[in-house]
Each structure stands twice: as C-alpha cells, then as structure tokens.
Amino acid sequence: MDGTMEVGVRTTESPRDLFGFRLIAPLALGSMLNPVNSTMISTALIPIARDFHATVAQTSWLIGGLYITSAIAQPTMGRLADCLGARRVYLAGLYLIALAGIAGIFAPSLRALIWVRVLLGIGTSAAYPTAMKILRNQAAMTTSVEPRMALGILSMSALSTVAVGPALGGILTGLGGWRMVFSVNLPLALVGILLVFMWIPNDETKPSGFGKFVREIDFIGITLSPGCSLLACCS
Rounded to an integer, what distance in angstroms lies between the CA atom of residue 18 and that of residue 202? Predict the structure, then answer.
C-alpha cells in the first residue's frame, strides 16, 4: 500500500521537479569527466615525457589508453546499468575516478600512469549511459514529453568541456605540475558522489544474479568494438 501511494505521489510531480537542478547537476558533472580527461592530458605530455625520460610515441599511450578503454567501457556500462541499476553503476564509476585521482599523484612510472588512464577511462565511461538510464526512469514516472532540456544540458556539458580541457590542463600543469591533471579528478569525483547520495533516487530494481549477469553481457562484442572503431578511423 505504501509503495502504491509513493508511486502515485511521484507521478503528480511536474516535469520541472522531475528534471530539475537536483537531478541534472550530478549527471552533468559526471558527463563532463570523460571529455575533459580526454583533452586535458594534452598539455601535460611534454612534462610527463621529461620526468619519465619517455618518447612522444610512448606518452601517446596516455591518450590512446583512455580512448580505447572508453570504446569498450561505455557500451558495457550501459548494459551493467540495465542489470545492476544505473545509480549503483554511476557510483561505482565515480569511486574508480577518485581512485585514479589518488593513483595519478603517486604513479612511479609511465606504465603506471597509463594504467591510471585506463582506470579513468572505465570510471568516466559510466556517467553518460547511466545518466540516460536515470533520465528514462524519471520520464517513465510522468506522462509528459521527453526531457529535452535535460538531454540538451548533458550534451552541452560533454561538448563544452572538450574545448575547456586543454586550457584547464595548462592551468593545472602551470600551477602544480602535471600530476594535478590527474589529482583534480579526486575532488570532482567526491563532489559527484555526494550529489548522487543527496539527489539521485535509489534504483528500484534489485541487481540481477551473477549467472544472469554473465549471460547477458556480450563479451565478443565488447572485445571486437575497439577494433571496429580503429578500422573506421583508418578507412
């Protein structure tokens, strides 16, 4: 009875309430982290190469590592959101981003730093597909039109930070060295985690069993997707 009454209360909320600042702010913050990390590293490559006595080809893996990981992780995270719950997967991604921010501060070698970028690629890839799932869940609670404004804000957040990334990376590198390009992810992730706990509604469905989870993941497609992306870029 209580659950039925709760659903009834939620469906009477206006679209502005359902897709207001409290819902969009955590989702927009997370959606910014992948594009900003993709471009922010560009201004730190030379200082990193100098400190680790690496070549340009070697440091380029800092860029390629995140791109390849994102190509695998984003569709995977979308499927995980269906199986485990969007809020759970989003929080897991933010935890990984925070961990990568700490690891980037203490990375002892270029190889370790590349693995940090892989970790960042996994963590940041969770934000956009889970944001779409959360918006769909909210839209299902009302008979109003699609949340076009919310979708536009998320898209603009991702696109605008692509341009901001190099400038931000240059400022951070100039202020505190290239490690700040990694460590800045820690406070951003912590703010995101706090906002999710405060404003994002809990997942209504329980996680699927492990057996069902394994059966529903397309491991072959996940493995082949980066190769298809590389072939498309080269053709």
Answer: 14
Contact status, residue 102 vs residue 186, Cβ threshold 8 Å? yes
CA atoms of 180 and 166, how far apart (whole Å): 13
Closest alpha carbon to 177 in 29, 46, 69, 60:
46
CA 89, 137, 229, 152 torsion: positive or negative? negative
Element counts in the chain: helices (H) and strands (E)? 14, 0
Residue 68 has pLDDT above 60, yes or no: yes
Q: Considering only CA atoms, which of 176, 183, 166, 185 is closest in space to residue 123?
A: 185
Mind listing the pLDDT tens digit for each residue in 170-200? Answer: 999 999 999 999 999 999 999 999 999 999 9
Residue 107 · residue 151 · CB < 8 Å: no
